[in-house]
Amino acid sequence: MIHYPGGPPVALATRTILLREYGRTIERPICIRAAGSALINSGAATSKHKYPWEKGIEMKTKVGLIRVLTTKDENLLEAHGRLVESRFPELKVESRCIDDQPKGIYDEKTSAIALPKILKLGEEMERERMKAIIVSCADDPGVEGLRNIVKIPVIGAGSSCACLALSRGSRIGTLGIREGAPRVMKDILGEHLVAETRPEGVKTTWDLMTGEGKKNALSAAEYLRKTGAEVIALACTGYATIGIAKDLERAAGIPVIDAVEAVGLFAWHLTRVR
Amino acid sequence: MIHYPGGPPVALATRTILLREYGRTIERPICIRAAGSALINSGAATSKHKYPWEKGIEMKTKVGLIRVLTTKDENLLEAHGRLVESRFPELKVESRCIDDQPKGIYDEKTSAIALPKILKLGEEMERERMKAIIVSCADDPGVEGLRNIVKIPVIGAGSSCACLALSRGSRIGTLGIREGAPRVMKDILGEHLVAETRPEGVKTTWDLMTGEGKKNALSAAEYLRKTGAEVIALACTGYATIGIAKDLERAAGIPVIDAVEAVGLFAWHLTRVR
């Protein structure tokens, strides 16, 4: 419940709803009563005004998103957060990245160095009253550790993607940028993991952006279907950045689960008020 | 995309949005443009009028829900569907039950008898252009079979509940009304399943509705936490009918995942337009 100090006991407030029209997002205020309304009861409000009922408030649930590579490029930093917001407009995603690792996490050593930084960012996010923490990497780095030290939900992109895939079918193929699927995904998929692959010649997500890379990703998806997969789980959040899931789905003719969309779905759901 | 035969190329339509205020649901029409709008692009419309842009349309995605017990009591039949609709107002749930099994599925024989009936209902739902099929039983009866014969998503309550639990933690305890968790849940949870139980003295969901049954359910939830569970997955959809998840969550101090809410979440997500 949000309390407005000094406000009337039943305050009239304006809630901004987002409508997607003609491919762009517009905001349209609708009038609701503030007190007792389930609508404004859904977590943090990002208030624009001192007395929100006077001039309108934007009702969003604030969640933190951790990128496990260092970048000063805001576009890159916020790429996943924007994707989550576009699919779940009730969420306001605050993206932060770990320090001093411009190449991100690529082996056990860099993973170990990143861990305390992830924990620090997560603790910060809880202190700042965010309602959930997304770790936006298919390896789920730091997810277990964070769950031990914060009280808000911590959701990893890898486990979310594997979980969402399992809700859709029981024979899952993973498409990543490394030979095999991340351990956390293998672990959840267990015997349901029927095939793992990556596009030929692709080693980083940048390779996916070339015509050749994209073509090879489509072939890899087809290969997974031929190997018996009913559902493809994308085992790298880089696929979300290039928004290829739908093309892959068309090429392979089976559902393709995007890791960032999956983690957004769970973040949205877990921060809703019951 | 919805086409209105004979309609203007860009039709003005009214979309009904549901607002929950003061505990009751009211409908408030808002005006949107019909053509090109993402809002009305989300699956089946249950149209009240021949030309919906003239008098307003109700935009809902229609999904089918299969109950695996025979009942003529509409309240009982629609209990799960109403729960799904209340949490995901974009969905219109059509509930149907299998014939001649008033006691439902309780062993291998009754499960085998039910299977062709479930498949028949699912095929019917696809023919009637429903956008997804929910099998509302934690055993996921017929889910695999249906996936082989229909093209729309088929989602089982048991697998959904296990999946949603895994997105939230890695040590899961199940609370059902039988000794162990359903096979489909064990199968998905694998090594993440740390404990399985049922409330003392409870054999059917009716037993849960007594004071004694509820008290024992709360103790069982506490037992699961003490045994090391980080998350509780409800292994029977009957818990949804009595709406006990939140009380269990308070008693145990760990997240409790409701099977009907989980299956609703996936049905909602899978029927959204990308």
Structural notes for this entry:
2 copies of one chain form a homodimer. The first copy, chain A, is an alpha/beta fold. Helix content of chain A is 38%, strand content 20%. Chain A is built from 12 helices and 10 strands. The first copy, chain A, has helices spanning 52-55, 74-77, 79-87, 108-127, 143-149, 157-166, 183-189, 205-208, 211-226, 238-241, 245-252, 259-270, and strands at residues 12-21, 24-33, 61-67, 91-97, 133-135, 154-156, 172-175, 193-197, 231-234, 256-257. In chain A, the strands form 3 sheets. The first copy, chain A, has a 4-stranded parallel sheet, with helices on both faces. Chain A has a 4-stranded parallel sheet with strand order 8-7-9-10, with helices on both faces. In chain A, helix 3 (79-87) crosses helix 12 (259-270) and helix 6 (157-166) packs across helix 12 (259-270). The longest helix of chain A is centred in the middle third of the chain and has 20 residues, at 108-127. In chain A, 46% of the residues are buried. Mean pLDDT of chain A is 82; it is low at 1-50. At the A-B interface, strand 1, strand 2, helix 6 and helix 12 of A face strand 1, strand 2, helix 6 and helix 12 of B.
